[in-house]
Structures are given as C-alpha cells and as structure tokens.
Amino acid sequence: LVSGSRSSKTFKPKKNIPEGSHQYELLKHAEATLGSGNLRQAVMLPEGEDLNEWIAVNTVDFFNQINMLYGTITEFCTEASCPVMSAGPRYEYHWADGTNIKKPIKCSAPKYIDYLMTWVQDQLDDETRVPFPKNFMSVAKTILKRLFRVYAHIYHQHFDSVMRLQEEAHLNTSFKHFIFFVQEFNLIDRRELAPLQELIEKLGSKDR
C-alpha cells in the first residue's frame, strides 16, 4: 500500500493547456509535426509564432511526459534504492528552490523528484499566463535544466526497469525530442548535460 500512496504523490496531475487557446493550437501543431518523425524539424519555432509561447507550450508538454515516464517506475525509485538523487556515480543533485529551501539539501531521489515536480508545477501555473513575465526565459531554463535531471536519473539508475517494462523506445523518443528542443533554443548549459553526453551524441548522430 505504501508504495501506491507514495507514487500517486510524486505523480503530479497532468497540466492541461486550455482548449481553444492559442497555446492549445500550438500544442496541436507540435503534436502533428512530431508525428512526421522528423524531430529536428518538429522543435523549430513555427513561422510567425512567439518564442516565449512556443517554449511555454513545449515545457508543459515535457513536464507531462516526464511525469508519466517517472510515474511508471516510482515503485523502483524508493528511499532505500535511491537514497541520493544521482545520475551515475559522478553526479549528485541537491535540492533548493530559493524560497522555501534556500540552502541546497541532500535528499533521496523520490523526495527530490517530488520537490522538483511540485516546484515546476507552481512555476507553470505562473509562467503560462500571457503576457509572459519578464524573467520568463530564465525560469523556463531552470525548469528544463531540472527536468533533464529526472531523465538523467531514470537512465542511470532505472534503465533496467524501463527495459523490463518495454518502455525504452518511449523514453528514448521523449528524451531525444527534449534534447533537440533545448539545443535548438540553447536552453540548457552544456555542462549540465554531461551525465548523458554520450547518449546525446548518439541520438544526434543518427539524425545528421
């Protein structure tokens, strides 16, 4: 029972973009171009569209995707199995949100991801409002940088579980889409991507 109640806690409700809104139309456009299979093209800013809006819509979409992917493996990501939030032996992440927790704290992966997803959700509630706040781009970059860490944790610590669940194709496609997107608009510092650098190069080389 315990794992069930915990996983539903980390599994945040899907963020919906209101139907009929311009952002909803953009999301539909993104989904349609994704279907073409050309991810490099799918991430490009559609002609005549606002960059902030395009980034906001895709960020919500990535939040929902990662939320779902992580939701499938929460039973394997526990205080006992993942006492620290890491991406392999060389990368460890400590949590701070700058408001409630100012000094970075060491915590388990499930706790870290719970903090992270709750924080992202709060930001998205603010950030997807139009007009966009002045600091929109820096907040979006922080959101994406942190969402990357969830991918990194899943790949490094739980890839065997992903394979057992036969979800690796889904994970790889989602991650590839995410990487092409952040590369297209230069949204995550290269240093931050280091834990998955080899994988990123491999995914990118297939599309040249």
Automatic annotation (TrEMBL):
SMART domains: Mob1_phocein. Zn(2+) binds at C77, C82, H153, H158. The keyword Metal-binding applies. Keywords: Kinase, Metal-binding, Transferase, Zinc. Pfam families: Mob1_phocein. It comes from the Eukaryota. SUPFAM superfamilies: Mob1/phocein. One of its GO terms (molecular function) is kinase activity. The keyword Transferase applies. This is MOB kinase activator 1A.
